[in-house]
Amino acid sequence: MSKPHDNEQSPQKPGKEMSRRQFLTYTLGGASAFMFVGPAIPMVRFAVDPLLQKKTEGKYIKVVEANKITNDPQEFTFEITQIDGWYESKPTLIAWISKDQQGNIFALSPVCKHLGCTVDWNNNPKLKDQYFCPCHGAHYTREGKQLAVARAPLDEYKVKVENGFVYLGDIIPNQHVQ
Ligand code: FES
């Protein structure tokens, strides 16, 4: 006489083992996903790559020999390479470079802090030794401190002097005035 359970399959415990149907579903699903997503990865990378690349941040540009810098601000222009997504441009920037009271070289941005026009040095006979903005009359001291109209000092460039040359880097808030 056989035992009562000899020919019966032991019942599956729910949630413990995968059925054949589930196994096939997962396997085919995974293979299909790989087939569709795999070739797309290089395309996605190509599309977003320029966005991941570093821009000009942290780069210094050689602008002028250090011995040409005087106490009076002088205007210098220089070109940078700017990468914005897929678009590369070479804008020309302006810096007003001079020495501070300690003899350190510093460089101001000419962008007026009122609404972004361009300031000039000593261009208003009534405002001697000042930067003046012709748009709405903002003016600034030699160190870039705002005296009227604008509510902030002129920004400055990061400066590095190396092997007798002045190099300019990123634009930062003015470090010479409060
Ligand atoms: S933009 Fe310079 S004063 Fe207005």
UniProtKB/TrEMBL annotation:
Q: Which UniProt keywords apply?
A: 2Fe-2S, Disulfide bond, Iron, Iron-sulfur, Membrane, Metal-binding, Transmembrane, Transmembrane helix
Report the InterPro entries cross-referenced here. Answer: Rieske_2Fe-2S (IPR017941), Rieske_2Fe-2S_sf (IPR036922), Rieske_Fe-S_prot (IPR014349), Rieske_Fe-S_prot_C (IPR005805), TAT_signal (IPR006311)
Needed cofactors, names only, are:
[2Fe-2S] cluster
Q: Where is the Rieske domain?
A: 97-168
Per its UniProt record, what Pfam families does this chain match?
Rieske (PF00355)
Reply yes or no: does the keyword Membrane apply: yes
- PROSITE patterns, from UniProt? RIESKE (PS51296), TAT (PS51318)
Q: Where are the transmembrane segments?
A: 23-44
| Protein name stated in the entry | Ubiquinol-cytochrome c reductase iron-sulfur subunit
Task: Name the species this protein comes from.
Answer: Paenibacillus apiarius
